[in-house]
Design goal:
CATH architecture of one domain: 3-Layer(aba) Sandwich
Helix content: 10-25%
Structural class: alpha/beta
CATH class of one domain: Alpha Beta
Strand content: 25-35%
Number of helices: 6
Strand order of the largest sheet: 3-2-1-4-7-13-12
Shape: globular
Oligomer: single chain
CATH topology of one domain: Rossmann fold
Order of helices and strands: HEHEHEEEEHEHEEEEHEE
Radius of gyration: 18 Å
Length: 248
């Protein structure tokens, strides 16, 4: 079936396959939050900012563990889903539908997280790396930031151009393309449920480690460490993922 490309990135709108991502299990989320708490050296009940919170999986788990969480995302559909999931979990999170590039903090935070390719997301208004300046301003002196994003060279070398998930009548097809002129990955999703079909587009910029180092430094951050995964393995040239710990 031929896929039609949406005229703008719409991956985080109502009906997004992200809401039912098969790999985003509660066990995975718990392990990631374990890492966050350890590496951020968070005191009990610390105030945390979650930038690009999506449907709230990290925010809700952090709130469940007693932290005061403000979670922001530019997609109203994601924030609505996050509200529902927080209510079902019996926790309180301050969710705001706002982009990181325009967010103005009313409070100061002990730490911030920016996970799962949030940095580099491309929307109708462009690429979002300017959000780092607002995160820096929102942190207390010494406050820490964790950023997770793909390592560009490995992402390009191991690119799966086509994948299909599901059965005969209900499935999702994914087609991916990398544009080296802009270092941008485009992922096109065709979600089929019987006679119903929706197309989604996700675009994000890919970075190298030196680019991330320069970008963080340009916004005032000092670097603490780079990791390859949430088990704390050191970052290698062959690591698919970069997890960066930085500080104000």
């Amino acid at each position: 079936m031929q896929q039609l490309l949406p005229d703008r990135p719409n991956f985080f709108e109502t009906g997004s396959p992200y809401l039912h991502h098969p790999l985003l299990t509660p066990e995975r989320t718990a392990a990631e939050v374990d890492f966050v708490i350890t590496r951020l050296q968070l005191p009990d009940r610390a105030r945390i900012l979650d930038v690009g919170c999506g449907f709230g999986r990290h925010s809700i788990e952090l709130a469940r563990r007693g932290f005061a969480v403000t979670a922001i995302d530019p997609a109203p559909a994601m924030v609505a889903a996050a509200h529902e999931r927080a209510k079902a979990a019996g926790v309180s999170v301050e969710f705001q539908s706002v982009s990181g590039e325009t967010f103005a903090a009313a409070n100061r935070y002990a730490a911030a997280i920016c996970l799962f390719t949030t940095l580099g997301q491309i929307s109708a208004t462009g690429e979002n790396s300017a959000l780092l300046g607002n995160i820096f301003a929102a942190l207390l002196p010494g406050g820490r930031l964790i950023v997770e994003l793909p390592q560009r060279a490995v992402a390009v070398e191991t690119l799966k151009r086509h994948e299909r998930f599901g059965g005969d009548d209900r499935y999702t097809e994914v087609n991916r393309e990398f544009d080296p002129s802009s270092n941008t990955m485009s992922e096109r999703f065709e979600v089929v449920d019987g006679d119903n079909r929706r197309d989604f587009l996700l675009r994000y910029r890919l970075f190298s480690r030196p680019e991330v180092e320069r970008l963080l430094a340009a916004h005032g951050f000092g670097l603490n460490a780079f990791y390859a995964d949430y088990a704390g393995a050191p970052l290698l040239h062959s690591s698919p993922t970069m997890i960066v710990v930085a500080h104000r």
